[in-house]
Request: fold
Amino acid sequence: ATDIGGIGCGKSILQRKQVSVMTKHQQITAILTDIENEMRAVELWQGQPPAAEAFESELPFAVDTMNAHEWLQWILIPRLYAMIEQGAALPSAFQIAPYFEEHYRGDEQAARYLVLLDHLRALDGLFAGHNHCRTRHYRKNHYWKSVIRMNISSR
Reply:
């Protein structure tokens, strides 16, 4: 797995050069692997899928039938892998990190999701065409500091 910053962040010059020659598909695959590994680390990864009815949702992120991490594991990650395997055109831009930031807002254990959120921001950055290493400023971000402070002080 890569470091907290994802592919290339905090790595040696040689390692960053190797990352720079990776295709976008390879970079996405590596970040998806990081997301899965982090979900396992924070015990969000599930061994069994939700009920079949949960997949019939027509709402964004299946908010009416799945938790955010279920949607990520059972819908988004498999769809992205399938698109890569089929050589299909990938979305030109999308953002999922804001949804997860909002989902975990107010969670008393918000700090445990920071690495996962970093990986989701890195994924967003790749689809937006940005160097995702430049998008990893959440630790300096006042929003997250205040969320963590708020959760600690409410105990």
Notes: The chain has six helices and no strands. Confidence is low (pLDDT under 50) at residues 1-8, 132-155. The two ends are 34 Å apart (CA to CA).
